[in-house]
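WARN no homologs supplied; continuing
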Amino acid sequence: MSDEKSRIMPFEQGDPEMGRQLSAARLHAGLTQADIAEEVRVSRQHISNIETGITSPTVRVLRDYLHACGTELPEFFYGPLPTDQTPRQREYHRKLQALLDNSTMSPVITKVLDSFMTSMQSALTAQVQPIRVQARWTRTQNMRDGERK
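OK structure emitted
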């Protein structure tokens, strides 16, 4: 991907490991990519792109994909919920699941989570950027120093 394109669409690249895990969950559920695509309301090619790590799913697509496979987001990321949870942890998970299951709230929660994921990816990118900014600042300073001599 060109540098210009990566600035325009910095988060389009997917996660091949997540794609392999999704593919394994789909196969374990006995589903084809076409089955998942129909259930999630996206193209089969989009499912293929997610599973091969070409692109990342939105939270809605990921949630619906996992639901079609018979699992949920927390279980996918963290495994089965532990039986030794504190009452507070059980209440937190119950509330989160209720929000995601609520047809009125789910789109809002999905947008918030998508924004949060984008923000986190931006923060990770920003950790690398200061080096480039510092290099640009140094070049600019060197050019200015050369003009003064």
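Residues 107-149 form one domain.
OK
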